[in-house]
């Protein structure tokens, strides 16, 4: 019973040693599309600041560049972009010095006059989602037409549309059009099921087209994260088994060092007995 308790204690310590803190990337204002020269703030919300989270991005011209390295101004775990341009379009995520990454966010900056404000993060099934079609200089309540996957959904006289109780079928590419002003870029809206247990956000460092993110893009980071946890956990688990095995050997008195010393003493004693017999034979020949 004592050995079993020790085994479980060591395994628990190993599991706690493998645990990594997670960060969640948020965007303010909460939108996936922006006009040129808009102000944008991205924050790595974290449980433990000691993890050292850094904001990184992939664009069409640069890969894995961090905030402050030619773009943005780092402010603790946040990154502020005072004047955002089309070159800032890309994928953003938080990355710690220990390796894990946060959820991934795709931002699009347009030089046009119309954008679609849509949820930048995945939405839960059953929630209500409001889409807003707005222009840069005119009021945001102009009549607008909304499209999903290239097909017209409806025309709204006030420029915004609410999808009530979203489901997986509502997932797709959305855009809007304001007559006389133009059409917005397209943005992918992801719908996720309500989790029964607390789950960790996932992400990917791959560069995706700024016009869309496919649903399969969320599965690869999950697999990568699982493999990383297995790679980290295996050495701890193996070392735990070795420690328990050594403890059991010592508890039973099966110390290999003692056994080796005993065997050596026996060999020396046998050698001495043989020498004694040889001496007796030499002194009393027949």
TrEMBL record:
Gene Ontology CC, one term: external side of plasma membrane
Residue stretches spanning the membrane: 222-244
Signal peptide: 1-23
Listed InterPro entries: Ig-like_dom, Ig-like_dom_sf, Ig-like_fold, Ig_Fc_receptor, Ig_sub
All residue ranges annotated as the Ig-like domain in the record: 100-192
Protein's UniProt keywords contain Manganese: no
Bias kind Low complexity: ranges: 190-210
GO molecular function, one term: transmembrane signaling receptor activity
GO biological process, one term: cell surface receptor signaling pathway
Protein name: Ig-like domain-containing protein
Lineage, highest ranks first: Eukaryota, Metazoa, Chordata, Craniata, Vertebrata
């Amino acid at each position: 019973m004592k050995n079993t308790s020790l085994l479980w204690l060591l395994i628990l310590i190993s599991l706690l040693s493998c645990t990594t803190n997670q960060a969640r990337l948020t965007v303010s204002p909460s939108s996936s599309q922006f006009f040129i020269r808009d102000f944008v703030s991205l924050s790595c919300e974290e449980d433990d600041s000691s993890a050292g989270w850094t904001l990184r991005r992939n664009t069409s011209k640069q890969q894995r560049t961090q905030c402050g390295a030619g773009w943005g101004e780092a402010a603790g775990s946040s990154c502020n972009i005072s004047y955002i341009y089309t070159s800032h379009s890309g994928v953003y995520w938080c990355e710690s010095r220990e390796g894990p990454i946060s959820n991934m966010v795709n931002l699009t900056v347009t030089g046009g006059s119309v954008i679609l404000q849509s949820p930048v993060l995945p939405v839960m099934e059953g929630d209500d989602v409001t889409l807003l079609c707005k222009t840069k200089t005119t009021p945001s309540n102009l009549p607008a037409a909304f499209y999903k996957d290239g097909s017209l959904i409806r025309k709204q006289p006030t420029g915004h549309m609410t999808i009530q109780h979203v489901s997986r079928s509502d997932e797709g590419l959305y855009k809007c059009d304001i007559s006389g002003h133009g059409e917005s870029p397209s943005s992918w809206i992801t719908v996720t099921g309500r989790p029964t247990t607390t789950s960790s956000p996932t992400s990917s460092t791959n560069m995706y087209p700024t016009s869309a993110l496919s649903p399969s893009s969320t599965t690869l980071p999950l697999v990568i994260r699982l493999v990383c946890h297995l790679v980290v956990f295996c050495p701890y688990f193996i070392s735990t088994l070795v420690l328990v095995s050594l403890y059991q050997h010592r508890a039973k008195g099966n110390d290999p060092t003692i056994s080796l010393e005993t065997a050596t003493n026996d060999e020396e004693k046998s050698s001495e007995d043989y020498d004694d017999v040889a001496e007796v034979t030499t002194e009393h020949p027949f």
